[in-house]
Amino acid sequence: MDHNEIKLAIDGIEGQDDDQEVSNYSQRGQWLRAAVLGANDGLLSTVSLMMGVEAVKDDAKAMIISGLAGLVAGACSMATAEFVSVYSLYDIEVAQMKREKQAKGDHNGESIDEGNRDRLPSLVKAAVASALAFSAGAMVPLLAAGFIRSYEVRLVSVVVAAAASAALVVLGCLGAALGRAPVGRSCVRVVVGGWVAMAMTFGLMKLFGSRNL
C-alpha cells in the first residue's frame, strides 16, 4: 500500500468518525431540545393552572393543590403520549429493518440483530425523560409557592409569576443555545409567550367566575 492509499484509508476512517460524531451530536441535541420543550410545557401549564384557580377562588392552598394535581396529571399524560408516539416509531423502524434484510436475501429477516437493535428508540427512556422534564418545569411555581408562609393568595401569585418568568428566561437561553439562535430574541419570545398564556388563563377564568358560570 503506497502513501496515497494509506492517506485515503486514514481520511476514510476520520470521515466515518466525523460522521458518527455529528450523528451523536444531532441525537443529543434532539433529546436536549425535547427536554427543554417538556420543561417549558410543565412550567407554563402548571403556573397557568394555578393562576386560573387564583382568579376564581381566593384560597392559596387550593391554588397550590391544583398546581400539584397539574404536575402529576401532566407528567403521566406526557409519559403516556411519548410512549405511544415512540412505540409507533419503533414499529416503523423494525418493519424497515426487516424489509432491508429480506431485500438482501436474508431469509431470517424476521429477526433483528443486536447491532440494529441498538439503533431502535427506547420506549421506557423516552417516557421517563418526558415525565421528568415536565415535572422539572412544573416544580418551579410549586417550590416558589412553598416558600410563602402566610399563604396570602396575592403574594403567592406574585412570587409564582416571578419565579415562572425567571425560569422562562433560563429556558429561552437554553433553547437559543441548542438552536444556535440569538439569545435575546429567544428569551423575549419565550417570556412573552408565557405571560400571554398566564394572562389569558387568568382573564378567562376571572370572566368565568364573575358570571357564575
UniProtKB/TrEMBL annotation:
Protein's membrane topology: Multi-pass membrane protein
Domain of life of the organism encoding this protein: Eukaryota
Transmembrane segments: 65-90, 126-148, 155-178, 190-209
Pfam family, one: VIT1
Magnesium keyword on record: no
GO biological process: intracellular manganese ion homeostasis
Major location category of this protein: membrane
UniProt-listed InterPro entries: Ccc1_fam
Keywords associated with the record: Ion transport, Iron, Iron transport, Membrane, Transmembrane, Transmembrane helix, Transport, Vacuole
Protein family membership: Belongs to the CCC1 family.
PANTHER family: FE(2+)/MN(2+) TRANSPORTER PCL1
Function as written in the Swiss-Prot or TrEMBL entry: Vacuolar Fe(2+) uptake transporter.
Name used for this protein in its record: Vacuolar iron transporter
Organism: Phoenix dactylifera
Gene expressing this chain: LOC103704413
